[in-house]
Every structure is written in structure tokens, then in C-alpha cells.
Design goal:
The chain is built from 14 helices and 5 strands. Strand 1 and strand 2 form a beta hairpin. Helices cover 59% and strands 3% of the residues. Helix 4 runs parallel beside helix 6 and helix 9 runs antiparallel to helix 12. Its main location: cytoplasm.
């Protein structure tokens, strides 16, 4: 609801700004026309045959400008704009807490891990100088191994940007066994891009030779894809206007680069996205809830820093869900091997410790906290995610 209110206020500011700009242009145009007309009359006054008094022209111009009232018109539109902008600013300050330090908790981080995350982030972005600076300041030379790994990846990607696939193919040859275990066909994608690039340059014979050398060994597990590529031979030099024009889309290069990046990181046992950027993105998404919770606790004079776990769930998007988890709706505890999720006969799920507390004994019948159904511990079954 607050976001809708902020959006409405923002749209009002935009509307007032457009009206103010339009009014300013209109006033400037009116003043300009009057001045141009006066200049024309003054220039004509220089003609001896035209007895026109320049003072009277300027006096008349002054009267016309006073009639237009540019200052009054501009003051009115700007005053309305400033009023809307002032209300919008106050609404932002009231609705969005600018002091995010209230959500901060004093947590002891492992400095080595933090330094590794920051250096890792810069290296995977290709910002090697910044990564080196972090490592030098932190005094952790052991982290330089990350630089050499990501340096190879960026060299491959930079070469692919100019459609040079040789470094990528060399890397695949060196890691073919591991890539085959992952069940990827990255080698076929790269050879397909090279084959199509040769065809686009109207070199049909060279493309056919390339296909026999590099695509033929891959044809067995990828028959349909290779057959489509062979059909492209009929349209050498004019693929853009052929039934196979989809192969000419630049997105194929972009997707292949993304896939290569993902496979490269996978072989390094690194995540595709930077852990630092993902952590910060998750923090930004959960920040409104944390700020609201901190304000509520401060009003109740409860100590935010003393909490061992959050009393409310922090909802994050699917992009931040990396594995299946279960949080007991009764105790708010996350399931573990010692406290697994249990399915009751009514199909509601609680953690084992919550069920034991409700039953108070292994034989006693207890009521489900979410429906009128009764159950016993023996009737509950452990769930496995």
C-alpha cells in the first residue's frame, strides 16, 4: 500500500514538472516574440525615410512584457512543482527509513572469508587491479590463485567477443572429460558458431570441410541439430534471408558465452553469480522487513542485538532459493537431521520437536494446530526433501 502511495506522489511530481516545463517554454516563446518584433522595428528606425522613435519602441516593449507577466507565470508553475516535490520528499522520509543502520547487527565475520568474497567478486568481473588491491591490503596472498583462474575465463570471453573461438575450444579440449560428465554440449555449440560464421562469409567449401572435421564426430548424440546445420550449406552467404535465419541471431553468441561462463565456474567449484552480489541483493530485498522489525522492537524496548533468530520470516525471491528447506510454522525453527519435518495424517507438516511438545508423550493423541483433526506420534511420517 505504501508503495502505491509513493508511486502516485511520484506521478504527480512528474505531471507538475511537465506542466512547469511546458509553461516555461510558452512564456519564453512569448517574450522572445515580443523582443524580436521590437528589434525589427528598431532596425527599421535606422532608415532615414522611416521616422520611428526607438525610445517609444522600448517603452511599448516594456508595456507588452509587463502584460505577459513572465515572472508571475513562472512563479506560479514553479511554486506548484516545488509543493508537489516537497510533499513527495516528506512522504519518502516517512515511508522509507533512510537510516538503514537500524537493521545492522554486530556479527563476528570470518575476515578471511569476507576478503575472499570481495576479491572473488572483482576477479570474476574482470577487475583484476581492484582484486589485487584488496588482497594486498588484506595481506592474503593465498587468494591470488583466484586471479589466475578467472583471468583465463576472461581471456576466452574477450576472444569470443571478436568471434575468435580458438581459446574456448582449447579450454574445452583440456576439460572435455569433466564437461562430458556434466552432460553439456558446449563443444557442439562452439563448432556450430564457427561453422555458421564461415557460411556467412560465403565460403561453402570451407564450411563443408569444417563440418566434416569437427561436426561429424559430434553428430551421433546430436543428430537433429547437426542436420539443421547441414541444411544451412544451401544458403551460403545469404543465411540472413534463409529458412535458417534464426542461426544468425547474436543471442546465440551471448547464450554460448553465458553457458561457457557457467561451466567454467562449475569446474572451479564456484557459483555462476558472485556470492557478494547475491548477498547484497538478498540484503536489499530483505531490508524493509528488517527495518520495520527493528522499529517495532525499539518501540517495545526489546533488544535487537540480543536476538538469536528472527521472529518473522523474511520473504526473498526464487532467485535466492538454492535448496529446499522447511521451517516449522509452530516453532519457527528450520528443519534439521535432529529435528526433521513430519507429515501428520491431516497432511499438515510440523517439525518433530513441535509434534513431541504437542503430544507430551509418544502415545497421547493431540490436535493439529491448523485443523480439527487428531493425530498421534506413531501416525506421523518423516518427510525427505
Amino acid at each position: 500500500m505504501e508503495l502505491n502511495t509513493i508511486k502516485d506522489a511520484f506521478e504527480r511530481v512528474v505531471k507538475k514538472q511537465k506542466l512547469s516545463s511546458s509553461k516555461s517554454q510558452e512564456v519564453i516563446h512569448q517574450v522572445g516574440c515580443e523582443i524580436e518584433q521590437a528589434l525589427t522595428e528598431i532596425l527599421s528606425a535606422q532608415d532615414p525615410s522611416s521616422p520611428v522613435d526607438q525610445r517609444s519602441i522600448l517603452s511599448e516593449l516594456k508595456l507588452k512584457l509587463n502584460a505577459v507577466g513572465p515572472v508571475q507565470q513562472l512563479e506560479g508553475s514553479h511554486k506548484e512543482l516545488n509543493l508537489s516535490l516537497s510533499k513527495y520528499t516528506k512522504l519518502l522520509e516517512r515511508s522509507l527509513n533512510p537510516d538503514i543502520s537500524k537493521a545492522y547487527r554486530d556479527v563476528d565475520f570470518d575476515h578471511h572469508i569476507v576478503n575472499q568474497l570481495i576479491a572473488n567478486h572483482f576477479y570474476r568481473q574482470g577487475l583484476f587491479d581492484l582484486g589485487d588491491g584488496i588482497i594486498d591490503e588484506a595481506g592474503e596472498p593465498d587468494l591470488t590463485i583466484l586471479k589466475s583462474q578467472f583471468l583465463v575465463m576472461h581471456q576466452i570471453l574477450e576472444a569470443m567477443k571478436v568471434k575468435n573461438l580458438e581459446p574456448a575450444l582449447n579450454w574445452i579440449c583440456a576439460n572435455r572429460e569433466k564437461l562430458n560428465q556434466n552432460g553439456v554440449n558446449l563443444e557442439l555449440r562452439l563448432h556450430s558458431l564457427q561453422f555458421l560464421e564461415i557460411l556467412r562469409n560465403d565460403r561453402q567449401a570451407d564450411a563443408l570441410k569444417y563440418a566434416r572435421t569437427h561436426l561429424a564426430p559430434l553428430a551421433s548424440p546430436h543428430k537433429d541439430e547437426v542436420l539443421k546445420l547441414m541444411g544451412c550449406l544451401l544458403f551460403a552467404g545469404r543465411l540472413d534471408n534463409s529458412p535458417y535465419s534464426e542461426f544468425t541471431s547474436p543471442t546465440h553468441w551471448e547464450k554460448t558465452m553465458e553457458e561457457l561462463t557457467g561451466q567454467f565456474c562449475s569446474l572451479l567449484e564456484q557459483s555462476y553469480n558472485s556470492p557478494l552480489s547475491m548477498t547484497m541483493a538478498a540484503g536489499f530485498e530483505g531490508l524493509p522487513t528488517l527495518l520495520k522489525l527493528a522499529n517495532v522492537m525499539a518501540a517495545k524496548k526489546q533488544e535487537w542485538q540480543a536476538m538469536k533468530q528472527l521472529p518473522v520470516p523474511v520473504e526473498l525471491g526464487k532467485e535466492f532459493q538454492f535448496h529446499s528447506i522447511f521451517v516449522c510454522p509452530v516453532s519457527r525453527d528450520q528443519a534439521s537431521e535432529e529435528n526433521p519435518p513430519m507429515l501428520m495424517p491431516c497432511l499438515h507438516v510440523l517439525c518433530k520437536q513441535s509434534i513431541m511438545k504437542l503430544s507430551k508423550s509418544s502415545t497421547r493423541i493431540f490436535k493439529c494446530p491448523y485443523c480439527p483433526a487428531d493425530a498421534s506420534v506413531a501416525q506421523c511420517r518423516q518427510l525427505h526433501f
